User: Fold this.
Amino acid sequence: MTFYEWMGDRTVGIHGLDARQRRQLMLAPRPDAVCDVVSGPEDLVIYLRDPLVEDETISAFIEHALDAAFGSEMQEPRCHAFGVRYGGPDTDMAAVARTMGLSEEQVIALHTNCLYRVEATGFTPGFAYLGYVHETLRMNRKAVPQMAVAPGAVAIAHHYTGIYPRESAGGWWILGYLHPTDTKRLWTLQSSQPGLLQVGETVQFYPK
Assistant:
């Protein structure tokens, strides 16, 4: 039996899951009682529609999602490739290169030479935390966040990189931008799985 704990009357947390297990829980068919499933880098939260759903309902959902037979029927994690227009006055590329003592070309090479895995989703719908950036590119968040980051911004902070799917405030360092067509694919509300990037999938960036 997988351990879980109540985190309020409508929220259940599960700890110690690997990326494959978190992906299975996020993509598994949900009973009516389950409103949403959100993954962090090492844990997962189940949001419920009504307070104090019976433990049997939660247990059955978790056990079915983590069942080996269900996992074997799932589509293999996808690998997504995105072209990025790196650098320019609307990015932080010059500041990142200067801080790291690198050329902009070296920053681009380090960022594109990694295959990133979706470790978690959140912050805003469609945003995925992609790990892990090269050690040389690991920077703290900006001391003063921007009030408005444009959609499609590809940015780094700490050991993650990510893509802003819509305009929002943000404190990550912007390296470049996706084409608007690719940006629109990150979150499709009409889809049964609105977020394009799911936990366990991989992302490759290339200069465009």
DSSP finds six helices and 13 strands in the chain. The chain has two domains: 4-73, 79-207. Residues 4-73 form one domain. The chain has a mean pLDDT of 91.
